[in-house]
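Q: Structure tokens for this one, please.
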Amino acid sequence: MEDEAAAAALKAAEEEAEKERLEAEAAQAKADEEERERIAAEEALALAKEQEADAERIAELEAAAEKEKAEAEAAAALAEKERLEAEEAAAEAKRLEEEAAALKAAEEENKEADEENKEADADAEPVPEKKEPVVLTKAQKKKMREKKNRIIKNIAAQIEAGETIDEEQTKDIAEKWMEIADVDGSGTIDLDEFVEFVGKLDESHSEDTTKEIFSTIDTEGNGQLTVEAFGQAIYETMKTMKTEDDPVEEDNE
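A: Here is the predicted structure, written as tokens:
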């Protein structure tokens, strides 16, 4: 009986030892599995971080590429704008050149036409024009008298100083009164216009003296005084005049 009990106890002990061994192996297997899972989790985390870093690098590269693309497009747009502006400037320069050429051609045509008209006018018989005398208002008469007095004083001062009047001065004198004296608007003064004008300056002035001055200045003998010659004639006429005060009463306009 004791042997059987001992054998049973030994068997029970062996079974318990086997059970503990199996439990230990199961625990070790579980621990190994947990370790593998931990390592796998760490590897997965490292891979995720690496993938995230790769994604960030790709995003940065894409952003840089997009920026370069935008800059290239902006540069291309600027180049296109400059090209169009250059074409517009060239077109405008060409247009101005063509306009200048057309204007020059028109001026030459007008010049030729003027020359032809002058030749035709020279060949044509002169048509006498009816001249209407210029009627001065009281204000115009006063202004004319004041202007005449100033010029007479200047002439007297020049004569006293022994100075002579030059061409520019006579032209300046003539231009001041050309509009009144040149009745027919021809740009020159004939004898009738000169006599009428001197009569407006000084009604008491001798007509014979006026005609004599005109003949002296009209060196070409064509019966016309240029602006400069008209100024010289006025100068010579005013040398014989005196200044006059404003009258108490004047004619109505």
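A few notes: Confidence is low (pLDDT under 50) at residues 248-253. The longest strand covers residues 189-190.
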